[in-house]
């Protein structure tokens, strides 16, 4: 920290304070900030010798700051506790950074449907959190801290020591999934710990602006929010489908069956990545459902990753409008959220984002298979890193890790983590010729 502080101060005389941040500078600043975080954040792992490889250390740190949770560590428990705290703190800091970007920066940049931020806040204009970005960030930090403290205390009541409670909380609130033990949450063998973790994963995967209004005594905003309702309908449907498939597969109904199914659905759809069971032993149908959830992700302005429920919701609305036009070619069918019409440019932006996300996924899978990975592992690794989920399928499944991925593959997956976390457009735009003109 002292070294980085000295470096920053030494660079100040050679920089000029901008009077106004342009859109182009905003894109570059956001992308370079995340690269710098992963680079400098990997130094503790490299200097300590815990992760001597620069590639592995960068991968682990990028996974932390992007709240992905994919790991190259084969034995987490031999790592010194100081480094495990830092490892989990990268997630926690990255989680709040993601919220700040979604609320304060992305709407300004016009990235991937983030302009819906204003529409997502229920209620009249006077109910907005704050007209100032700095005040908004401060308020959301307090909300984040309150939930962090609450989960830490509740986990300690469940028998976890302070160290484990804090590390699990950092992984939960950031929807990162790093755990201080090899077996993840399965290590604790506690229904209480499972349900507490499920609750706070849901909290972290929900729009944090809704939490703010709930803490202000307006919980009705949850129900009024269409994305919130859609998000929980997805979870309910997924749990029912997975439980049904497991029952048909020969398992008897029990509380453990329900808890295990609920935990993995919530963990994957919120892109947290904690595990209590090896879901690769479940029927193939359940694995396909979990794979679909890796693409859906959490809500906008949450710490969750992937495409986000608000975009999927708008996509379905768009498809519905197109079907209506088949019967009424001259009809006008606007897409609405909270009884407000979503502007056409935002709808097109969202459609473009989903298409671009799909294209990057396909090229990512092609690259990983070219590097020698089998199809299951290639699909699982790309879906898990691009969606910031963590565990995937195949040899990067819930009880495996990413240590065996080729060096080039780790750099590719690191890029996918950052691209997915920064809403794709932010990263890809700096590679276009127009950006540098």
Set out the fold topology.
Blueprint: H1 2-11, H2 23-41, H3 43-48, H4 54-65, H5 81-109, H6 117-120, H7 133-157, H8 162-173, H9 191-205, H10 208-215, H11 220-224, H12 226-248, H13 255-269, H14 284-296, H15 309-327, E1 336-337, E2 340-341, H16 344-370, H17 375-386, H18 407-421, H19 425-428
Helix pairs in contact: 2-4, 2-5, 4-5, 4-18, 5-7, 5-8, 7-8, 7-9, 7-10, 8-9, 9-13, 12-13, 12-14, 13-14, 15-16, 16-17, 16-18, 17-18
Number of strand segments: 2
Please report the number of helical segments: 19
- What is the overall shape? globular
Give me the side-by-side strand order of the main sheet: 1-2
Major sheet details: 2 strands, antiparallel
Q: What gyration radius follows from the Cα positions, in whole Å?
A: 21 Å
H-E order:
HHHHHHHHHHHHHHHEEHHHH
The low-confidence parts are 112-129
List its traits:
single chain; mainly alpha; two-stranded antiparallel ribbon; 19 helices
What does this molecule look like?
The chain is mainly alpha-helical and 437 residues long. The protein has 19 helices and two strands. It has helices at residues 2-11, 23-41, 43-48, 54-65, 81-109, 117-120, 133-157, 162-173, 191-205, 208-215, 220-224, 226-248, 255-269, 284-296, 309-327, 344-370, 375-386, 407-421, 425-428, and strands at residues 336-337, 340-341. Strand 1 (336-337) and strand 2 (340-341) form a beta hairpin. The two termini are 36 Å apart.
């Amino acid at each position: 920290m002292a070294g980085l502080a000295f470096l920053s101060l030494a660079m100040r005389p050679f920089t000029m304070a901008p009077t106004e941040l342009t859109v182009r500078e905003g894109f570059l600043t956001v992308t370079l900030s995340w690269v710098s975080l992963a680079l400098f954040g990997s130094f503790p792992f490299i200097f300590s010798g815990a992760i001597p490889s620069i590639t592995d250390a960068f991968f682990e740190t990028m996974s932390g700051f992007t709240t992905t949770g994919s790991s190259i560590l084969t034995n987490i428990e031999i790592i010194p506790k100081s480094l495990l705290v830092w490892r989990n703190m990268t997630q926690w800091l990255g989680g709040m950074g993601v919220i700040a970007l979604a609320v304060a920066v992305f709407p300004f940049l016009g990235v991937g449907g983030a302009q819906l931020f204003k529409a997502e806040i229920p209620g009249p204009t006077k109910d907005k959190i704050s007209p100032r970005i700095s005040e908004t960030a401060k308020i959301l930090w307090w909300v984040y801290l309150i939930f962090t403290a609450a989960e830490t205390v509740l986990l300690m009541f469940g028998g976890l020591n302070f160290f484990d409670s804090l590390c699990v909380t950092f992984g939960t609130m950031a929807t990162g999934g790093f755990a201080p033990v090899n077996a993840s949450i399965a290590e604790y063998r506690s229904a209480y710990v499972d349900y507490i973790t499920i609750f706070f994963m849901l909290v972290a995967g929900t729009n944090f602006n809704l939490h703010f209004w709930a803490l202000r005594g307006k919980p009705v905003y949850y129900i009024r929010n269409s994305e919130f309702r859609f998000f929980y309908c997805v979870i309910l449907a997924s749990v029912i489908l997975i439980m049904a498939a497991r029952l048909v597969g020969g398992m008897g109904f029990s509380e453990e069956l329900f808890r295990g199914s609920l935990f993995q659905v919530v963990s994957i759809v919120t892109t947290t990545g904690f595990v209590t069971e090896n879901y690769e032993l479940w029927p193939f149908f359940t694995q396909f459902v979990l794979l679909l959830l890796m693409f859906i992700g959490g809500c906008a302005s949450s710490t969750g990753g992937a495409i986000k429920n608000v975009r999927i919701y708008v996509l379905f609305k768009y498809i519905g409008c197109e079907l209506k036009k088949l019967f009424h070619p001259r009809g006008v069918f606007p897409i609405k959220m909270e009884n407000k019409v979503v502007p056409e440019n935002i709808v097109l932006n969202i459609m473009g984002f989903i298409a671009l996300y799909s294209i990057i996924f396909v090229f990512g899978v092609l690259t990983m298979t070219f590097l020698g990975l089998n199809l299951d592992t290639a699909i699982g690794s790309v879906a898990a890193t691009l969606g910031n989920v963590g565990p995937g399928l195949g040899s990067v499944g819930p009880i495996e890790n990413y240590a065996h991925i080729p060096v080039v593959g780790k750099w590719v997956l690191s890029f996918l983590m950052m691209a997915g976390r920064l809403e794709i457009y932010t990263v890809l735009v700096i590679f276009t010729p127009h950006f540098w003109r």
